[in-house]
Amino acid sequence: MPWIQLQIPADPDTADQLEDLLMEMGADAVSMEDAADQPLYEPDPGTTPLWSQTTVTGLFQSDRNTEQLLADIRDAWHQQTQQTLAEIDVTLVEDKDWERAWMDDFHPLQFGERLWIVPSWHEAPDPDAANLLLDPGLAFGTGTHPTTALCLEWLDGQDVAGKQVTDYGCGSGILGLAALLLGADHVVGVDTDPQALEASRENARRNGVDDNRLDLFLPGNDPDTRADIMLANILAQPLIGLAPRLAELTKPGGDLVLSGILFNQARDVMDAYEPWFIMDDPEQKEDWIRLTGRRKDG
Predict the structure, then answer these.
(1) pTM, 2 dp
(2) What's the CATH fold of domain 3-95?
(3) Per CATH, is 106-295 categorized as 3.40.50.150?
């Protein structure tokens, strides 16, 4: 059976209200998606952030009168908000296995020569590679965003065997787990969100990582373990504020890898770290920057 698909642009203040309205109007399913390729980072506990430009999609059974449905939605929206809902995109879509269609959109991703991110329903393309099992759609990122990809590509190009690594702002644990699969000895993961730490634990379990190789902490509870490699894929302003702490936690001669930085923010972040690190030229992917450096002696 085909479906009537309605897509309505929204902002964070109206998306939830539109979702409720479509359900009230008899939608069989309502979803929200990013309309502008905007990454969402770890939310505060108990919050559900939305993109600044969101598309709210409702699926209705095809036996509905489309013109009457649109009129009813616009009228109800005007009664609730005293505003006009002008833009509604209408499409007739064929029925299909929606879960399978979603899964088919995601395939193993290669970063450099040795490292793959592999969804659980796929076979690893290279069984001898470092294959990190991580499903898209789960919390806190899967490597598809340029900020994460930049860090994964850097890790793949390094000899991390036997190294002590810190992943500050670990989220799903993707960077720390990748380092472990590439041969790192031990990883300390730090994140402000307890849900992120739980996601890291679960992903470590799925990838067969021994508990004694990964330790996870909230900030303030993390040990003063000094890292051979310091990874921090967060955002520019938090990175600037964290500069003294990350410098303290990095061994002399140790590597620093920073991401989550837009092109026009790179200079400010570099300035914050140059008292402690010899910084390299930025590496860019799309609008995002990776910064690397080495800890000075002393």
Answers:
(1) 0.68
(2) Alpha-Beta Plaits (3.30.70)
(3) yes
